[in-house]
Amino acid sequence: MESWETIFNSVKELKLNCSVENESYDNFFFKIGTIVKVKKRGLKILNFDPAGYLDEEPTKIKYIKVSALGFDDNYTNTMGKYLRTKQ
Q1: Hey, which residues does 53 pair with through a beta bridge?
Q2: What gap in Å lies between CA 62 and CA 79, rounded to an integer?
Q3: How many Å apart are CA 76 and CA 65, to the nearest integer?
Q4: Which helix H or strand E contains 14, and what residues bound it?
Q5: pLDDT digits over 4-37, tens only?
Q6: DSSP readout, 18-74?
Q7: Dist CA 15 CA 36 (whole Å)
Q8: Phi, psi at residue 86, to the nearest 5°?
Q9: Could you tell me the strand order of the sheet in which 68-71 lies?
Q10: Which of 18, 31, 53, 70 has an alpha carbon within 20 to 30 A of 8's alpha carbon?
Q11: CA angle 53, 56, 57 (to 5 degrees)
Q12: pTM (2 decimals)?
């Protein structure tokens, strides 16, 4: 694992949902879902909410803003089985 790009590419290839966050007080964010695209400076993730609804559009996240990545945990794997779109 050399960079965020290689890490996110590996997670995407394994088809795992993941959580991506910035733990900083000033710039906090938390996104959880499927990696849609991995680029040189950032990624796009299709976020889902606690009820399992997917966002309509993927969220762009720059690697410079990422401080933590989680994947292959019970919550993310279980929720991933029941994701749905809003009608």
Answers
A1: 84
A2: 25
A3: 21
A4: none
A5: 999 999 999 999 999 999 999 888 999 999 999 9
A6: EEEEE--TTT-EEEEEEEEEE-SSEEEEEEB-TTSBBPSSPEEEEGGG--EEEES-H
A7: 10
A8: -75, 135
A9: 59-62, 42-47, 29-38, 18-22, 68-71
A10: 53
A11: 125
A12: 0.89
